[in-house]
Amino acid sequence: MPHDDRAISARSLPNRSNGETVALSAERSAGTAFSENKTSRVAVGALMKRVIAKDNVLAALQRVERNKGAAGPDGMAANDLRNHLKTEWPALKSALLSGTYVPQAVRRVDIPKPDGGTRQLGIPSAIDRFIQQMLLQVLTAIFDPLFSEHSYGFRPGRSAHGAVQKAREYIEAGYGIVVDMDLSKFFDRVHHDKLMARVARRVQDKSVLVLIRRYLQAGILFNGVAITTSEGTPQGGPLSPLLANIMLDDLDRILTRRGLRFCRYADDANIYVRSRKAGRRVMNAVRRFIERRLSLKVNEEKSAVGTPQSRKFLGYSFFRRKERVLIRVASKSLKRFKAAVRTITEPHNAWSMEQRIAALNRYLRGWFHYFKLARTHSVYEELDGWIRRRLRLCLWLQWKRIRTRLRHLRAMGLNERYARAAAFNSLGPWRMAGANTLNALMNKAFWRSQGLQCLMDHYRTLQS
Description:
Layout: H1 18-33, H2 46-51, H3 54-67, H4 81-98, E1 106-112, E2 118-123, H5 126-143, H6 160-172, E3 177-182, H7 186-189, H8 192-200, H9 206-216, E4 220-222, E5 225-227, H10 240-257, E6 261-265, E7 268-273, H11 276-293, E8 304-306, E9 316-321, E10 324-329, H12 331-344, H13 353-370, H14 377-399, H15 402-411, H16 416-423, H17 429-433, H18 436-441, H19 444-449, H20 455-463
Parallel strand pairs: 1-4
Antiparallel strand pairs: 1-2, 3-7, 3-8, 4-5, 6-7, 9-10
Helix pairs in contact: 1-8, 3-5, 8-9, 12-13, 15-16
């Protein structure tokens, strides 16, 4: 049996060294170790002093101001934070030093998922975002150097692009089966005691540990009612991604010990093996580890063993061309793209054409920046043509009456015969938007003159 395809079994877990025994003991007792009364005073340690150091405070303030974001439960905008701190920082600093600071409950917002359902985001107050950012900057310096090289999510100098590129290398090297793991409602199900035990492995400052615990237990403000939480770390706060990586670091370590090739981005992990048999074995073993050791749950609907061509990873997919493995945009990502463009080009939203094109350009720039790894120019050409047709549809419906259409067609230089044939045509709006007459009249050059940026323009710029 190849070494890298072995299942992760109980026998493959490392022997419990003294350090691991201490960590497991801490995990069992974490419920009492960090559950102090919220108003009790906690002795401040060296790490908290680093958190409130002037340079760290100013860097955190600038980051929160730069990120902006929606207002939390207190209604304070990020750009109002600086003025607020000019008067309130001494009291806030004193509360942090004395261990008496109590975070506010986060404002819950339900965000629709592209594939159905909703994702719950917790929006902290501006003050709590600021404090979390202060903590994040100090804790990142402690934890990030220890994380696995296979972990790409929410880490300095790492990105989804790095994970996708590494996955492509594994596939090209012959690991043509992927174990696609997705954790069910990961951020809602993180076990507080298990997470705090893992944080305590590297953080001994009790004041910092208590503050992190209070953020985990701050609760959610929903319809004006504060709901306490016994598990989970709400998405939306600066600290949550780091805590997620801390929680899943044990998974990375056990996969690395077994010599498995994998890429993890937050709660989305792909493990690459050579055969389906090995893939099923790894899937079962990883599921057991996640559920028994981490008290998390695998999303059975989204997790599967299959070929990289049939699965998506971070919005991308893969395909073979001769001996090479190339990257493409996954089909589900293309569907989401079209849904977003349909919203922008909705004919009845009363936008002017200038507004539509400006909104399209912003969306296309951001979309291409993320999907620039894809090497499928034919897809970009097809999407560009479809976008132009959507814009022609908007114009055709805006013109409404025959005489209005006739006047605009004449003004655009169409001869009388073709202008009248188009204006009086009984085809539906979508079919007219794709008809040869309008297609030739309002072609690529026309829309470029209106300021529209094409995906192919971005692609050619990248290639050059």
